[in-house]
Write a structure and sequence with these properties.
The complex is a heterodimer of chains A (about 350) and B (about 400). Chain A is mainly α. Chain A has one domain: MetI-like (MetI-like fold, Orthogonal Bundle). Helices cover about 75% and strands about 0% of the residues of chain A. Chain A is built from 15 helices and no strands. In chain A, helix 4 packs across helix 7 and helix 7 packs antiparallel against helix 14. The radius of gyration of chain A is 25 Å and the shape is globular. By secondary structure, chain B is α+β, with helices and mostly antiparallel strands. Among the domains of chain B are: about 200 residues, MetI-like (MetI-like fold), CATH 1.10.3720.10; about 50 residues. Helices cover about 65% and strands about 5% of the residues of chain B. Chain B is built from twelve helices and eight strands. A four-stranded antiparallel sheet of chain B has the order 1-2-3-8. A two-stranded antiparallel sheet of chain B has the order 4-5. In chain B, strand 2 and strand 3 form a beta hairpin. In chain B, helix 9 runs antiparallel to helix 12. Chain B is globular. The chains are: A mainly alpha (about 350), B alpha+beta (about 400). Chains A and B meet through helix 1, helix 2, helix 8, helix 9 and helix 11 of A and helix 1, helix 3, helix 4, helix 9 and helix 11 of B.
Chain lengths: ~350, ~400
């Protein structure tokens, strides 16, 4: 970008930056204040995180040093990815994560936005589940209780979105339906789910749902958690989709009606393609929030990435390094969420350019 | 809007009804209602059977039993011998305490950050931007446990940090000085309130005057004199309000008010997290006011402060209020994450109650209803306020 002739060079931009920092007495004062703050916090942090940090060794080596103990993160790295998943079978969550990353990357490319992508997801999602659970094709069965780490964070996010997204479209359509009972039902469902904290839904899934099932019937806890998370995803996404439906000009609805399309033809061919496309940035933003909320499964003891790391803190050989663990977890979540938010910004810019 | 005259006719409703709804619509809704009733009945039936199998019965009678839950902090008097109802009330009050304080502080911090984000100083802009991105892109639970870990790593009471006079930070939380609640303090507060009221009356009269004559006098000076003078007067009569200053005595502090490590970590985490979202909302709101408004106001010769107050803010508020409301609700709902760091909020106390009584359905129903009511009440208030600032079209 900087090489483009229309843009000023790096040196010129730096000069403009400095000039703006010291334009007038107020600005100079603010700049000095900022520099003072940086001087107060940055050197101790760099010192702790980099210069005096211990990069390898044992807990004893770490305690001898003054800085951060990255040896701890190094020791627990694979544990934070796979959790308690049986050691010999770790290739399975690893393969699952590779499929997941490949699918996500493919889904960000606009050229692939067609029904084949949907079909690919419809095949990949069950494949990921079978790969993790086993019991088929000669794969040994692994209880969901043993799933953990980044793998399960990925599973919750992907299945929550894959199941919640279609449901959210139905809820949004239901909320705008002309049938009053259906409309009230969808509105009440959406508002009730959005009005309570996610962790109360998780508690419900963990404690209440078993009471609601017929005696003798048990549902795996992870599936119950996914059920709660899916409902939560659907309710929040439904509001985004509803915004899209409301933004489509009336003329489009009327034109579809005058062509004699049925309700579902009208929605599938005319309204939804537009409504979903214009809300993609908002959908990505909502999904960032939902992705961050996968950490809440900590309250009912599902070992996602964050909970697994917290469990690693209890290792008697490595007591006393919570800050390092949290900084590591924060970095991982930040990289993932930041990438998504940049992607959403880029999409927004492209859509706006397309409209001009 | 249907197209019955076209050859490509969609399957037509069997009996056309007024309102354009066919029999199919009725049928679908009937199916929905029957399905819901069936679901509700089977849930109720299963629940009765399951609870009976565990020797429990559905009902709220357990609320009157002694809870035996030790709760570390409470606004109202509480002992473990009190009832479950009392324990849950303590939890609710703790939730409200952190939510109200959090909303207040995150608004202040968020507005400051939002304005800083629009500063002409690129360094300040960049720093605030970096803060907002880091906070918004990491999970709140993580931030809460991080702050909790930091607070627990603070020095012991004897080596407590003392960043401001009277403020002590230690492992046991934060110590702050407070006023002693006595006659002198109430007299001063009453004086302040009276001064504020008189200022409002004065401003209202000036506005009426301006509408009649076009002249406008500033009420700033008399207003400030009233709000500052009346408390001073009260202090002269009833004596000055006294401070309760925390002091190190032996192994602990005496006096002052204590914020527990859990409360402090929760409040800090919630405020820092929500303020980042509020800052973005404020920034977007101010930027949503067209540049022409600034220019027009400047052309009228208004000074900068008054442009902000009379022209920009009223318009920006219209954009800011609705998303701000949802942030306030988010903060309140997010305060339920207190359970992760052990602050005794509503969810945390409920969780303990469930473990002790097994009355899961009732307790979860109670706290979900409470959150729904808080949500509805807050949106009601904010909608009223929103209506007051919304565009008045004739």
């Amino acid at each position: 970008m900087a090489a483009a002739p229309a843009l000023p060079g790096l040196a010129a931009r730096l000069r403009a930056f400095v000039a703006a920092c010291f334009a007038g007495p107020v600005n100079t004062l603010i700049t000095l204040g900022c520099l003072g703050l940086l001087a107060l916090f940055l050197p101790p942090f760099v010192n702790w995180a980099l210069i005096e940090a211990t990069w390898s060794g044992t807990a004893a080596t770490c305690r001898a040093g003054n800085g951060a103990c990255w040896a701890f993160v190094r020791e627990k790295f694979w544990f934070s990815i796979f959790g308690l998943y049986p050691f010999e079978e770790r290739w399975r969550p690893a393969t699952m994560l590779v499929i997941l990353v490949a699918m996500v990357v493919a889904s960000t490319i606009r050229r692939f936005w067609n029904r084949w992508l949907l079909l690919a997801w419809a095949v990949a999602a069950p494949a990921m589940w079978i790969l993790m659970q086993g019991g088929l094709f000669g794969l040994p069965y692994v209880q969901t209780r043993l799933w953990g780490g980044l793998a399960i964070t990925g599973i919750i996010a992907v299945f929550g979105l894959a199941l919640g997204y279609p449901l959210s479209i139905l809820l949004a359509l239901g909320r705008r339906s002309s049938l009053p009972l259906l409309r009230w039902f969808c509105t009440a469902l959406i508002e009730c789910i959005r009005g309570v904290p996610l962790i109360s839904l998780l508690f419900m899934a963990a404690i209440m749902v078993p009471l609601f099932l017929p005696q003798g019937v048990t549902v795996d806890r992870l599936i119950r958690v996914l059920f709660a998370y899916t409902l939560f995803t659907a309710a929040y996404m439904a509001e985004v989709v509803r915004g899209g439906l409301q933004a489509i000009p009336r003329g489009q609805y009327e034109a579809a009606d005058s062509l004699g399309l049925t309700y579902w033809q009208k929605m599938r061919l005319i309204i939804l393609p537009q409504a979903l496309t214009i809300t993609i940035p908002a959908q990505v933003n909502t999904f960032i929030g939902l992705f961050k909320d996968t950490t809440l499964v900590v309250v009912i003891g599902v070992f996602d990435f964050f909970t697994t790391l917290r469990a690693a803190l209890g290792d008697p050989n490595w007591l006393g390094f919570p800050t390092e663990a949290y900084v590591y977890a924060a970095t991982v979540y930040f990289v993932l969420c930041f990438a998504m938010s940049r992607y959403s910004l880029a999409l927004e810019r492209r859509f706006r350019a397309g409209q001009r | 809007m249907s197209s019955s005259s076209l050859p490509l006719d969609p399957p037509r409703p069997l009996i056309p009804l007024p309102g354009g709804q066919g029999l199919r619509g009725i049928l679908w809704q009937a199916v929905l209602v029957i399905a819901l009733l069936l679901l509700g009945w089977s849930i109720y039936h299963n629940m009765q059977a399951n609870m009976a199998a565990r020797g429990l019965q559905f009902g709220f009678g357990f609320l009157g039993r002694s809870a035996g839950i030790p709760i570390g902090e409470s606004i109202i008097p509480y002992t473990p011998a009190d009832t479950y109802q009392r324990a849950l009330t303590v939890g609710l009050l703790n939730t409200l305490r952190v939510a109200v304080l959090g909303i207040l502080l995150c608004t202040i911090l968020g507005v400051l950050l939002g304005i800083a984000r629009l500063s002409s100083n690129p360094l300040l802009r960049g720093l605030v931007g970096a803060y907002i991105e880091v906070i918004r892109n990491t999970p709140l639970v993580l931030q809460l446990v991080f702050w909790h870990a930091i607070v627990l790593q603070l020095p012991s009471v004897r080596q407590a940090l003392n960043p401001l006079p009277g403020v002590y930070l230690s492992q046991r939380g934060v110590k702050l000085p407070v006023f002693v609640a006595d006659q002198a303090l109430f007299a001063c507060l009453a004086g302040f309130a009276l001064g504020l009221l008189l200022w409002l009356v004065l401003a209202w009269r000036e506005r009426a005057r301006q509408r009649l004559s076009g002249e406008r006098r500033s009420t700033l000076l008399p207003g400030l004199l009233l709000t500052a003078g009346l408390p001073v007067l009260a202090a002269a009569i009833f004596g000055a309000p006294r401070w309760d200053w925390p002091q190190l005595a032996g192994f602990n502090f005496e006096g002052g008010v204590t914020l527990s490590p859990e409360f402090f970590a929760l409040l800090l985490g919630l405020v820092l997290y929500t303020a980042a979202f509020v800052a973005e909302i404020v920034r977007a709101g101010i930027q949503a006011v067209p540049k022409g408004q600034w220019e027009a106001a400047r052309a009228l010769g208004l000074p900068r402060g008054r442009i902000m107050r009379l022209v920009i803010l009223p318009q920006a508020l219209r954009v800011i209020i609705p998303p701000l409301t949802s942030q306030y609700l988010n903060l309140t709902k997010n305060s339920s994450l207190a359970v992760v760091i052990g602050y005794p909020d509503l969810v945390s106390v409920s969780n303990t109650s469930i473990n002790q009584t097994g009355q899961a359905v009732e307790v979860i129903l109670i706290f979900m209803t409470v959150y729904l009511l808080i949500s509805l009440f807050t949106s009601l208030l904010m909608n009223l306020y929103n209506r007051a600032v919304a565009l008045k079209e004739r």
